[in-house]
Design a protein that fits this description.
The complex is a heterotrimer. Chain A is α/β, with parallel strands linked by helices. Chain A has one domain: Rossmann fold. The mean pLDDT of chain A is 87. By secondary structure, chain B is an alpha/beta fold. Chain B has a single domain, classed as 3-Layer(aba) Sandwich (Rossmann fold), CATH 3.40.50.300. In chain B, the strands form two sheets. An eight-stranded mixed sheet of chain B has the order 6-7-8-3-9-10-12-11, with helices on both faces. In chain B, helix 5 packs across helix 6 and helix 8 packs across helix 9. The C terminus of chain B is likely disordered. In chain C, 74% of the residues lie in helices and 0% in strands. In chain C, helix 3 packs antiparallel against helix 9 and helix 5 packs antiparallel against helix 6. At the A-B interface, helix 5, helix 6, helix 7, helix 8 and helix 9 of A face helix 7, helix 8, helix 9 and helix 10 of B.
Chain lengths: 320, 344, 292
């Protein structure tokens, strides 16, 4: 049984201008002790996917179809109250810039202990002991439980947020751009930490990022999203070394590789599409140099192009 | 290659404002040494990158060079002419020739102005246009050069009606409309989507090729610096740790800090086995700088001398500079090495 | 070319009016205000009347009748006529005094915010001085020294009401000054004057505008207060003057409600309409406030 299975998830946002199909028919899965990377540009639906899984959608967003199965149990079928409990206990999320989510006038340790007291019904003493354990786990000096957020550096705050996410022993941690605002060195530290935790606790990790190059360091599987859809997914090796979708290829080239050729690739023309009126046919066709009539009219389905490797392109691998 | 910009021993210190009582109680004046002795030169048509983590002083250097922040010490020489003791009018002339592109295209354009006014503003401020027709022509030219075609579609729109990439192009049009010799680009693509970034960088390179503009490119992203620049300087806490040609820095760097930075740099490839030199802790605050080499508390190759003496930036190979005692030994005079042994 | 510019301006205006229309409070305020403005402008043409002409003995303190729809006052003057001609005076004083306040307040506020040094500090101390001294005695003293004419009253109210605006505008200027587009303006070689006029002013303008509406309400109240205390211009009676006469003649105690209720109600309605409009503008200009 998979730890998490998302099947045909559709999440729409109601706006003044109409319905935005932020996530449109997305399927993916995650096993114990594995890392799934969701990558794409802003507005591609990667964060909405995560929020849908964690049941944290804002009021104007609604899941209109699909299933989210956590250890075989459909989260959609649960009552609101039960879901809220599950959310913290089993799926927790670390946001981008989460370090600013700490209350500045409350000791960091207490903020974490509060979560434990609320959800696990621990006493204050028990919660503080557990908090110190968590601090150790995320490699912060235990002594710092009594410090305030302003005494923490950016990296340490992000570690504290990870500790908070770990507080209730979740089965899945979702990192939504957890390292984006941090310096490279701190980013490396945090990624290292996440990898270590994943191995020690045997939990699943979903890493959401716009930075494809981060994925190669810790992911097992990668799904590339564009305009609310997954355009390609597969093992990380397949995505990096044998990609079949032109968007993956273009995205990959947008990141210079210091072990490769020193040149700037061509840019992807145009801008990411407006999801109020997504392009007809293949959503990438207006920006794809290989597109033809068929791409404009017929939407390509995700098709298996290799073992556990899927791509949604009429002409898989045409750019090679 | 003739020099466009020369920075000599630049220091920028900021006083820390504290509470009245704290000020009364301690005599010591607290200062942030944001930039602490920088020398660099940028040649005509060269792209020079300053790379560093937050707090390294890279943005402060860029702004000080353009006289947006006063320098505490040091000299800035532009086209062979020192900026020290210049009159207001002369500084205004300098500003026409040296422009800046800012990091955040959502913030660096006045939300109440239309694109036409934003791009024409530098011309108007400097009294460079005689009539509406000339103004229009120059603005359209600049917009088209910045890749916003047809320019007529953009003239009468507000910044919030454009995408991030388009706004950054407007900002670039506003900089090149003055025909500058030198542009400081402060993280010009870090707020943009990946697919848009390359376009902006290509535009900057094209302008260099067509108009011979020199750039000081400020970034935290070593791989971007490597792709677009001729030379790179790696900063740490307001000082240059290593400086040299882009390829040299990436592939043959000598300073332990650069080595570590490069080892943790993510690359778009599967590389789980890659050996990473992860430094512990974070950059210390620039108020209480460590004694000796400012990198020594985090340096994996630290030895006793590093705690006492600050290494100088020395030329270790032609055009390749590094500030580290470990490397310095090779390049130094015998006399100095003798003394070093004696000390031991 | 300039056609396109005016078109943009019109588009913005239409958009603004549209959002004003969607605000109930704003619409109520606008309707009341427009009514009184029309009354002030066209009233004297439709209902010609000279407040300096006193009525005969039999016409003193008459209750409303067909001849005098709102009755007569203690001098036998028609109350409706006084109300209409008073609207002109009250609104004129309110609007012009506000204008003076806003111009002085905005200019000093921007200067104090932009020159965040000795000059700024000096302006702010001066402003604080005006903020803390009790404005009513100051106005009384000023009005007494300058004499009681409409223009002096405008000047007095205008010169005592700017300090609040200065504080608000300065705070906003300080925050705008830190935004990168100001830095860009410096980098292209702009001087202080250019930055203040071209960059800071347009960006504080919405705030100034919303503030203007609220200051107008205060200005009209100030005028009423001054006139009520007898500092008004007797040759051009405002609503405050009418209340003053009503009070002096003891209209309230003899039950001559038609004498004091119309001017009192007019003042309340106009002040209320300004306040409503102010709230509505605040909501339009700061969309984040919506629904709170």
């Amino acid at each position: 049984m998979e730890l998490l299975e998302v099947r045909n998830l559709k999440t729409y946002f109601k706006t003044q201008k109409g319905m935005v199909k932020a996530v449109d028919d997305v399927s993916c899965s995650l096993s114990y002790g594995k890392v799934l990377g969701l990558v794409g540009e802003s507005g591609c639906g990667k964060t909405t996917t995560a929020l849908s899984i964690a049941n944290l959608l804002p009021p104007e967003g609604r899941i209109v179809g699909g299933e989210v199965l956590l250890e075989g149990e459909d989260l959609m079928g649960l009552s609101a109250g039960k879901l809220r409990k599950k959310r913290w206990k089993e799926v927790s999320i670390v946001f981008q810039g989460a370090m600013n989510a700490l209350n500045p006038v409350m000791k960091v340790g207490l903020q974490i202990a509060e979560v434990l007291m609320l959800h696990d019904k621990l006493t204050y003493e028990q919660a503080m002991i557990r908090t110190k354990e968590l601090f150790k786990l995320v490699e912060i000096d235990e002594e710092r439980v009594n410090q305030y957020p302003h005494e923490f550096s950016g990296g340490m705050k992000q570690r504290a947020m990870i500790a908070m996410a770990l507080a209730c022993n979740p089965k899945i941690i979702i990192g939504d751009e957890p390292t984006t605002a941090l310096d490279v060195m701190v980013q490396a530290q945090i990624l290292n930490l996440l990898e270590k935790l994943k191995n020690e606790i045997n939990m699943g990790l979903i890493l959401i990022t716009h930075d494809l190059s981060v994925l190669g360091e810790i992911c097992d599987d990668v799904a590339v999203m564009y305009a609310g859809k997954i355009v390609e997914k597969g093992k990380v090796e397949d995505i990096f070394e044998n990609h079949q979708h032109p968007y993956t290829y273009k995205l990959m080239n947008a990141f210079p590789n210091i072990y490769g050729e020193r040149k700037l690739s061509d840019s992807i023309p145009g801008n990411p599409p407006n999801l109020l009126e997504p392009p007809s046919g293949c959503r990438f066709h207006p920006r794809c140099e290989f597109a033809d009539e068929r791409c404009k009219t017929k939407e390509p389905m995700l098709a298996e192009v290799g073992h556990r490797h899927f791509a949604a392109c009429h002409y898989g691998g045409v750019f090679k | 290659m003739s020099q466009v910009m020369e920075v000599k021993d630049l220091k920028v210190y900021f006083d820390i404002k504290r509470g009245f009582i704290d000020d009364m109680l301690s005599k010591e004046k607290l200062q942030v040494k944001a930039v602490d002795g920088i020398d660099l030169t940028i040649g005509k048509g060269e792209i020079f990158s300053l790379v560093g983590e937050s707090g390294s002083g890279k943005t402060t250097i860029g702004k000080t060079i353009l006289d947006l922040i006063p320098a505490t010490q040091g000299d800035i020489v532009f086209l062979g002419d020192s900026l020290k003791h210049k009159s207001k009018a002369e500084k205004k002339k300098f500003r026409q020739k040296a422009q800046m592109i800012f990091q955040d295209p959502y913030q660096s354009l006045n939300p109440k102005d239309i694109i036409l006014d934003i791009v024409a503003e530098p011309l108007q401020v400097n009294g460079l246009i005689k009539n509406e027709k000339e103004k229009m022509q120059k603005v359209v030219n600049a917009l088209e050069m910045a890749g916003l075609t047809p320019a007529e579609d953009f003239l009468y729109r507000y910044p919030h009606e454009l995408s991030g990439g388009q706004r950054q192009r407007v900002a670039i049009a506003g900089a090149i409309v003055l025909d500058p010799e030198f542009i400081v680009a402060d993280e010009p693509v870090s707020m943009l989507d990946v697919s848009i970034r390359i376009g902006i960088l290509n535009l900057m390179m094209a302008l260099r090729d067509r108009k011979g503009i020199s750039y000081l490119f400020i970034t935290h992203d070593l791989s971007l610096a490597w792709v677009i620049s001729d030379r790179i300087a790696i900063l740490y806490l307001g000082k240059i740790m290593e400086m040299g040609r882009a390829d040299t820095i990436i592939h043959e760097c000598l300073h332990p800090y650069s080595q570590s930075l490069i080892s943790v740099m993510p690359v778009p490839a599967v590389n789980k086995e890659k050996e990473r030199i992860i430094l512990h802790g974070e950059t210390p605050d620039p108020i209480h700088l460590p004694e000796g080499c400012r990198f020594h508390p985090r340096c994996p190759k630290v030895f006793e001398k590093c705690c006492r003496e600050e290494p100088e930036l020395t030329e270790v190979a032609p055009g390749h500079f590094a500030a580290c005692h470990r490397i310095g030994e090779r390049g130094r005079s015998l006399d100095e090495q003798e003394r070093y042994k004696d000390n031991k | 070319m300039s056609d396109i510019r005016s078109e943009i301006r019109n588009r913005k205006l239409v958009q603004f009016l549209k959002s004003l229309k969607s605000s109930k409070m704003g619409m109520i305020g606008a309707v009341i205000l427009v009514f009184f403005l029309l009354l002030a402008v066209f009233g004297p043409i439709i209902y010609p009347y000279d407040p300096q002409v006193f009525g005969s003995g039999g016409e003193v303190m008459n209750p409303p009748s067909s001849e005098h729809p709102l009755g007569t006052d203690d001098m036998g003057r028609d109350v409706l006529g006084s109300l209409i001609s008073g609207a002109r005076v009250s609104l004129l004083i309110g609007v012009l005094a506000t204008l003076i306040s806003m111009v002085v307040g905005t200019v000093l506020g921007i200067l104090a915010g932009y020159y965040d040094n000795k000059l700024g500090a000096l302006i702010m101390r001066f402003t604080d001085f005006f903020l803390v001294i009790p404005w009513l005695p100051l106005m009384l003293v000023l009005a007494a020294i300058l004499g009681t004419s409409v223009w002096n009253i405008i000047l007095v109210i205008g010169l005592t009401g700017w300090a609040g605006t200065t504080r608000v505008v300065r705070a906003q200027t300080l925050s705008i000054k830190e935004r990168p587009f100001i830095e860009r303006a410096v980098a292209i070689g702009s001087d202080g004057k250019h930055i203040m006029v071209k960059h800071i002013l347009p960006n504080v303008f919405p705030l100034v505008f919303a503030n203007t509406i609220l200051v107008s309400a205060v200005a009209i109240l100030s005028e009423t207060t001054l006139s009520f205390l007898g500092m008004g211009d007797p040759t051009r009676p405002s609503w405050g003057m009418m209340l003053h006469y009503a009070f002096e003649s003891g209209a309230a105690s003899i039950g001559a409600y038609w004498f004091f209720i119309p001017p009192g109600l007019a003042v309340v309605l106009v002040v209320l309409s300004f306040t409503f409009l102010g709230y509505a503008f605040d909501e339009i200009l700061n969309p984040k406030l919506k629904g709170r």
